[in-house]
């Protein structure tokens, strides 16, 4: 009996590790959610996690599910009504034949999409639009512009609470009011975005010396496309107000996304099924499965142990705790993906009751660390999927070589900015 009890935590860790590896590597090209859900079901079947605890784990993700659903509805409506194609074509026209200017404009558009629609939207819907514009502009090498979609999706993902689902899981029901969030993350975000732009542009300078076409057809933005843009703007305002009044963001996001979709569909030739069938619904069971895996890990006492270690580190030096936490998580998320890492980190900082700038360092590590490798975040995995549809291949080693240049200076500057505020 004792041996079984001792072995049980290792079995839970093993199942969680294999499930997470499946999400990252996608053996047999199976969707990511299959691995997370299979791991969760296996924990229940083997009696390692009770059905009640499983439901508790799933329920803890309710705000995230609502947030993602609302954002996916907004992003898909905007995509089908041509808003992202119009934005990308607008950027190409205003580049006026300059590859460097086109790169900068794509970076600016990617920043805006990430800030107001989340990093996953940048990866899923902006990447195909940028690929199409690169073809229209007859660029010699499209990859520099496509890389922007991957790197800005993470670099700008802590400008607002809505910019990354990981922000919701780290703070949980204790999301700070907007008036507290903005001063805490404005400087770190500005430094992260600026550093990412400068290093990425420098690394791609050889590809940006060639001129691009100036005769580019800009698609007409239909009234429905304009309505979708207004819906996104209205949703952003709703979420900013919700954040200002300390309201959880999931339900407002869902309601705003659903209202925008219904309003556009009442005027558009699109039917509801045309929108619903193109939404990557597998993201929801993926997140639910990860919540269950983290719930199981909690039963092994790992979060309590990590919380004790973090508390000890904070007592010794809060500055040291901030730097160590941020750097360790920035590297660690590339081994286990930032969503499960964010779930564990959120529980640990809640238990340790750390100072706010330490929590900020944790969030920055989880959000920005994925710019090191293709396995770091769901947004980067979705970006790779979008690239494959465009016939573009980026190896893990090529991305890692570039990420090793881009991520570290952005991380150091962002953490310094967070510490300066704290």
Helical segment count: 20
The secondary-structure element order is HHHHHHHHHHHHHHHHHHHH
Helix/strand-derived category reads: mainly alpha
Alpha carbon gap, first and last residue:
49 Å
* Rg measurement, Å: 21 Å
Low-confidence stretches: 1-7
Mean pLDDT: 87
State the share of residues found in helices, binned by percent. Answer: over 70%
Biggest sheet architecture: none
Tell me the β content: under 5%
Kindly state the number of beta strands. 0
Structure described in brief:
This protein is mainly α and 422 residues long.
SSE map:
Elements: H1 2-25, H2 32-45, H3 51-59, H4 62-80, H5 83-94, H6 99-117, H7 119-136, H8 143-155, H9 165-171, H10 178-203, H11 223-244, H12 250-267, H13 272-276, H14 283-299, H15 302-316, H16 318-336, H17 338-352, H18 356-368, H19 378-389, H20 396-421
Helix pairs in contact: 1-2, 1-14, 2-14, 3-14, 4-11, 4-12, 4-14, 5-6, 5-7, 6-7, 6-8, 7-8, 7-19, 8-10, 8-19, 9-17, 10-18, 10-20, 11-12, 14-17, 15-16, 15-17, 16-17, 16-18, 16-20, 17-18, 18-20
Give a written overview of the molecule.
The chain is mostly helical and 422 residues long. It has helices at 2-25, 32-45, 51-59, 62-80, 83-94, 99-117, 119-136, 143-155, 165-171, 178-203, 223-244, 250-267, 272-276, 283-299, 302-316, 318-336, 338-352, 356-368, 378-389, 396-421. Helix 1 (2-25) packs antiparallel against helix 2 and helix 6 packs parallel to helix 8 (143-155). The N and C termini lie far apart (49 Å).
